[in-house]
């Protein structure tokens, strides 16, 4: 009896185990066939190959319709890991012209990349030239799992404006995680408008679905191509840059360190923007991009840094017109107020020197001669204005005026990497002096654009543009229009660039300052540029010699022309250039004359020749 019971129990155990195994199989099959698409995807990948078709990036033109950046064919070598079999690695490396170590590293990088699949194509080598492609294509049949794909790379019509135009480079992990548009091996805008307007320029990818045979070979398009998606080309864009003026300005800046910015005051459109030393944008296109980028990155003069929008410099005496405007608006001075200059600004034993000697000035000649003494006393009058309860209150208002003129914060240009410069506020000095009882004498150097004041060349050019407009500016920008838009019409610049920004200074005060800058060109510190009236140009300008504790002073110029109905405003900043009239004035005024007249007059040709040929690199501490 006992034996029968044991047999019966064993039978139930065996039946239970069998049922459990069957149940596990049923659940697994249900999961694989209904819930999970893992095997469906594998089956699809065995039967199909999905190829990405890359769109052409938008073409970039200058303001006169000249082609700046265009596309040319390039080829990628693709690999599908599942299909790589019996690979002769040495032969393959010889065909591609790479080392075995480079081959192994690339294979590791591919398998470790985000979203990697053994069944999908991955980029092995990108941007082969047509010549290299012909060599590879001829031999590729020997290497199972490898294929080629055509795409486009950027090419540049002129060797100019690399930091404005930017370039494209292979997308990084962070961008892939941030934007689902990108996958490993894609290319993305890097620097300049290529980066800032990436989503406009890149277009939309297409796809084609290809059928494989039992041996994995591509036979035809699935369903006669009905499921394929055609790529959509990126939008073409027109920039505000004048390629001819840009090229001319860059040639004047050769062998000099600094920046030049030219703006059309009536629109805020950037006509030219130079950061020097510069480089040929074609260095960052093609297979040598990485090597060339490394060389530029390690260049001691930092050509990859956009000095026009990223370098913060003491503005020097180009800051004085802004001081004059604040004094007039705040009622601290009138145009006819006479202030002394006894060899500079003096208070007690302190002296801030000036080149003018013993004299007294009203505002217009003080601007024209760039009198340090006058503007030192000007700042004292502003900060000790009886309308304010304290110097702290007066200085806070002074800062608000400066911010309204475009200083202390980013202007918002449509290029990546803009910095804000620096305008101090009362709290900054309270912390620095450990008291609120500091006096104007303690910060007197800011009256002449020194001390803690920092500005980008773009901000200085924008001040010139604001004075030219008599009290307002447009956000400086490099995009003129996008074409075509979704409805086929020309699309203008973003709305933020279309509305004037008014300062806190009344228009009538700008007339006084503009006259001071006009007199600077006629009889003051800009007179070395020569009277440009015979060429029909009524120049207004202001020099600056910015003190540099690390070496020779910086040479600065800002100006605009004509005085009425101005067409161009310029800032030229030359590191270690010495006096403002030495380099800043000649280069800045030559750019103005070139833009307005299309040529340089015979009388001013010597200035042009000298600027083409002279170098300031020897004054820079990195010079060897």
Key terms for this structure?
alpha+beta, single chain, 624 residues, Penicillin-binding protein 2a (Domain 2), 3 domains, elongated, 5-stranded antiparallel β-sheet
Write the SSE topology.
Elements: H1 2-35, H2 38-47, E1 48-53, E2 60-61, E3 67-79, H3 89-96, H4 100-112, E4 122-128, H5 130-139, E5 146-156, H6 162-165, E6 167-170, H7 173-178, E7 187-190, H8 192-196, H9 198-201, E8 206-212, E9 218-221, E10 236-239, H10 243-252, E11 258-264, E12 269-276, H11 289-297, H12 307-310, H13 320-330, E13 339-347, E14 350-361, H14 363-369, H15 372-383, H16 391-404, H17 426-433, H18 457-468, E15 472-473, E16 479-483, E17 491-492, E18 501-502, H19 507-522, E19 540-546, E20 554-561, E21 568-574, H20 584-597, H21 605-613
Parallel strand pairs: 2-10
Antiparallel strand pairs: 1-8, 2-3, 3-4, 3-5, 6-7, 8-9, 10-16, 11-12, 11-21, 13-14, 15-18, 16-17, 19-20, 20-21
Helix pairs in contact: 10-20, 13-15, 13-19, 14-19
In short:
With 624 residues, the protein is α+β, with helices and mostly antiparallel strands.
Kindly describe this structure.
The protein has 624 residues and is an alpha+beta fold. The chain has three domains: 2-36; 53-239, Penicillin-binding protein 2a (Domain 2) (Alpha-Beta Complex), CATH 3.90.1310; 249-619, 3-Layer(aba) Sandwich (Beta-lactamase). Helix content is 35%, strand content 21%. It has 21 helices and 21 strands. It is elongated, with a radius of gyration of 33 Å. Mean pLDDT is 86; it is low at 38-43.
């Amino acid at each position: 009896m006992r034996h029968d019971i044991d047999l019966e129990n064993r039978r139930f155990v065996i039946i239970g185990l069998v049922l459990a195994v069957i149940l596990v199989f049923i659940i697994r099959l249900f999961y694989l066939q209904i819930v999970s698409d893992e095997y469906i995807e594998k089956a699809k990948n065995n039967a199909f190959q999905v190829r990405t078709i890359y769109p052409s990036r938008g073409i970039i033109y200058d303001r006169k319709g000249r082609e700046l950046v265009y596309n040319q064919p390039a080829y990628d070598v693709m690999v599908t890991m599942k299909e790589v079999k019996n690979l002769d690695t040495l032969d393959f490396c010889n065909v591609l012209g790479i080392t075995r170590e480079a081959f192994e590293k690339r294979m590791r990088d591919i398998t470790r990349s985000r979203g990697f699949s053994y069944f999908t194509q991955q980029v092995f080598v990108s941007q082969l030239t047509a010549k290299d492609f012909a060599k590879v294509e001829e031999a590729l049949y020997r290497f199972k799992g490898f294929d080629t794909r055509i795409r486009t790379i950027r090419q540049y019509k002129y060797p100019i404006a690399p930091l404005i135009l930017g370039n494209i480079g292979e997308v990084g992990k962070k961008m892939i995680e941030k934007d689902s548009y990108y996958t490993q091996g894609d290319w993305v805008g890097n620097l300049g408008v290529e980066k800032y307007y990436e989503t406009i320029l890149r277009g939309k990818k297409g796809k084609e679905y290809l059928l494989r045979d039992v041996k994995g070979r591509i036979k035809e398009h699935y369903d006669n191509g009905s499921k394929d998606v055609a790529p959509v080309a990126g939008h073409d864009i027109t920039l505000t840059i004048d390629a001819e003026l840009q090229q001319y300005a860059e040639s004047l800046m050769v062998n000099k360190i600094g920046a030049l910015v030219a703006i059309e005051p009536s629109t805020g459109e950037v006509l030219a923007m130079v950061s020097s030393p510069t480089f040929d944008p074609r260095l960052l296109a093609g297979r040598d991009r990485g090597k060339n980028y490394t060389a530029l990155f390690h260049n001691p003069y930092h050509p990859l840094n956009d000095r026009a929008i990223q370098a913060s410099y003491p503005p020097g005496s180009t800051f004085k017109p802004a001081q004059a405007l604040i004094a007039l608006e705040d009622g601290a001075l009138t145009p006819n107020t006479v202030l002394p200059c006894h060899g500079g600004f003096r208070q007690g034993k302190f002296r801030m020197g000036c080149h003018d000697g013993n004299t007294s000035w009203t505002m217009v000649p003080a601007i024209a001669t760039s009198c340090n003494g006058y503007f030192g006393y000007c700042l004292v009058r502003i900060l000790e204005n009886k309308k304010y309860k304290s110097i702290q209150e007066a200085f806070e208002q002074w800062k608000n005026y400066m911010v309204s003129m475009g200083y202390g914060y980013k202007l918002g240009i449509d290029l990546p990497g803009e910095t804000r410069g620096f305008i101090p506020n009362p709290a900054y000095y309270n912390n620095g002096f450990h008291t609120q009882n500091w006096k104007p004498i303690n910060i007197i150097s800011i009256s002449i654009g020194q001390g803690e004041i920092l500005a980008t060349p773009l901000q200085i050019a924008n001040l010139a543009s604001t004075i030219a407009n008599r009290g307002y500016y447009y956000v400086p920008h490099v995009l003129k229009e996008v074409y075509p838009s979704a409805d086929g019409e020309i699309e203008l610049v973003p709305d933020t660039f279309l509305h004037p920004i008014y300062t806190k200074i009344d228009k009538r005060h700008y007339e006084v300052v503009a006259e001071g800058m006009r007199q600077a060109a006629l009889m003051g510190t800009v007179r070395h540029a020569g009277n440009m009236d015979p060429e029909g140009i009524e120049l207004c300008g202001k020099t600056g010699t910015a003190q540099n504790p690390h070496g020779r002073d910086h040479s600065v110029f800002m100006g605009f022309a004509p005085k009425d109905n101005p067409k161009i405003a310029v800032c030229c900043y030359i590191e270690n250039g010495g006096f403002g009239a030495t380099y800043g004035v000649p280069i800045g005024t030559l750019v103005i004359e070139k833009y307005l007249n299309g040529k340089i007059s015979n009388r001013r040709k010597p200035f042009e020749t000298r600027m083409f040929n002279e170098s300031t690199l020897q004054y820079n501490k990195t010079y060897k």
